[in-house]
């Protein structure tokens, strides 16, 4: 445990936030499929959630950095996300869900980048220990996805919104248990954002982040539907997701050692290259339970190592008052634009080209990210 920071209060936010994802991401596509939506509609609705990340994090990050009210933004976003999600209980029509998801995710996507920036401010010189705080988010995801897999094996998945809504309440509550921390003022804090973005290494990093998250799009949107269609029941689907995130937990726990041993550049390259292998294994060997399970272990690198390395680079490049904007820009470009692109091409190709071809495209995108990082990423 790290001394002199509110470790458990910071960790509780991550636990609830990613426990919500553990219910929402693996099972929402199944919920939509159960409600009668086709692959294109599911891809479009999932893209809404990713798409709002293109604008919302940066807008709220700009407000937080200029008004100095980061914690206030986090609390407002958490409460309004919960209230916005309430609309899902009133109708299941496509355009109503589209509207609900726009409102909900606009506020939902505002809070995590700001909380990341606040966490780094609390950590101060212990920033290399970030993974020890963030690890509780992964644990929350594992607990939620495993329990829900068991629950939905005996209870209709139409009850999914109630579980998500309850966890959103937990997120909102956790934000009122933490205090703000402005962090040290850096001399570079007034450097214009445009100047930072002229650095080709920053541009290359953000482009690689976009590509790797675009490669994850079909996985986040259709993996549960894909595995269910090949005979895996919901409890086993939950286990597969849990294996992936448990691997991520191990990666987060080992990050201080791994960074010291291999350095950020080597870890980033490894994570991007392993992504190509993972998507090919999933795309072509889904009927082999051993290979399918093995492929999930790669989540340790394709997300765990990748994310920890990416935000470390972002924290390095974006200083002082640019911290919130930097984290928001990373979220907007990677999880937002990249995730939306991934959900959309996945939706349009899933039925027409098939799962194997869709995941092959994912593998190509991950390899492109590897090549860009190989050329431009600094050690």
- Quickly count the helices: 15
State the shape. globular
Beta content comes to: under 5%
Helix fraction, binned, reads: over 70%
Can you tell me the CATH topology?
Growth Hormone, Chain: A
Order of helices and strands: HHHHHHHHHHHHHHH
Radius of gyration: 19 Å
Question: Which short descriptors sum up this protein?
Answer:
mainly alpha, 15 helices, Growth Hormone, Chain: A, 379 residues
Structure report:
- The protein is mostly helical.
- It has one domain (7-181, 192-376): MFS general substrate transporter like domains (Growth Hormone, Chain: A), CATH 1.20.1250.
- The protein is 79% helix and 0% strand.
- It has 15 helices and no strands.
- Helix 3 crosses helix 5, helix 10 (234-262) packs across helix 13 and helix 13 runs antiparallel to helix 14.
- The chain starts with 6 loop residues before the first helix and ends with a helix.
- 55% of the residues are buried.
- Mean pLDDT is 89; it is low at 184-188.
